[in-house]
Design brief:
The chain has one domain (about 5-195): Rossmann fold (3-Layer(aba) Sandwich), CATH 3.40.50. About 20% of the residues lie in helices and about 20% in strands. It contains five helices and ten strands; from the N terminus they run E-E-E-H-H-H-E-H-E-E-E-E-E-E-H. Helix 3 (about 80-95) packs parallel to helix 4. Residues about 1-15 and about 15-25 have low confidence and may be disordered.
């Protein structure tokens, strides 16, 4: 968004919406990466789509092209929204914008999504964020995170997380605050000597709860190699 004002005026004037260039695609029709124009700020509500749903919704060819274009920049398991987040961070890094503020899925705080946010904010700082907010639009109710970041040397505004002052905001959208202990858990690393000691076990990707009666009936089937239960 560009902000203009008359000479000598303290009141900025926002350009009409029809004069503001938008780049809401991360791939051109030819499969290349679009060039974003220079702007004072990048503001948007990019589409959300979980990493495991990309191919089913966008097609294997599109997703494969997208993975190739953003190789080493966006983790392949990340939500679609993360491509906008990373591209916005790179735009700031090139000096082509001063600030970015995006609506993201609230899962931006963990896993591959958080790693994408970490990539987007390398050399930059989150100066304002809401970690987990309700978002209701067109009958859909979801939870979102809102993240605003700028170059690290931009000290024009004190950081705020969830409308409360903070010393620093981490990429898992927790914060260090005055008078409180603040630890960036996103920087935690695995202890090598714990390798092979324990395993988290199976992790369900969806509901797979079998009623006890049905499970015992399955166990009694003649084809069951595990034998009959007591």
């Amino acid at each position: 968004m560009r902000r203009n004002g008359f000479p000598g005026s303290r009141q900025p004037i926002l350009d009409p919406l029809e004069t503001i260039e938008c780049r809401d695609a991360i791939l051109t029709p030819e499969g290349g990466e679009p060039e974003w124009p220079e702007a004072d700020a990048i503001i948007g509500n990019p589409p959300f789509l979980a990493g495991k749903l990309l191919i089913a919704n966008l097609g294997e060819e599109y997703v494969s092209t997208m993975f190739s274009a953003y190789e080493g920049r966006v983790p392949r398991g990340a939500d679609l929204v993360c491509y906008w987040v990373v591209k916005a961070g790179e735009h700031l890094g090139q000096g082509a914008s001063k600030r970015a503020g995006l609506v993201a899925t609230n899962s931006i705080r963990g896993g591959a999504n958080r790693r994408a946010l970490e990539k987007a904010t390398e050399g930059r700082a989150i100066f304002d964020a809401w970690s987990d907010e309700p978002w209701v639009i067109d009958g859909a109710a979801v939870r979102v995170s809102l993240v605003c970041f700028a170059p690290s040397d931009d000290e024009s505004r004190e950081p705020q997380l969830d409308a409360q002052a903070a010393d620093a905001i981490y990429t898992d959208l927790t914060a260090a605050r005055k008078g409180q202990a603040g630890v960036d858990l996103a920087k935690a690393r695995r202890i090598a000597r714990n390798g092979g000691v324990a395993f988290m076990g199976d992790t369900k990707g969806g509901p797979f709860d079998v009623p006890g009666d049905l499970a015992r009936r399955w166990l009694r089937e003649p084809s069951n190699p595990n034998g009959r239960p007591n």
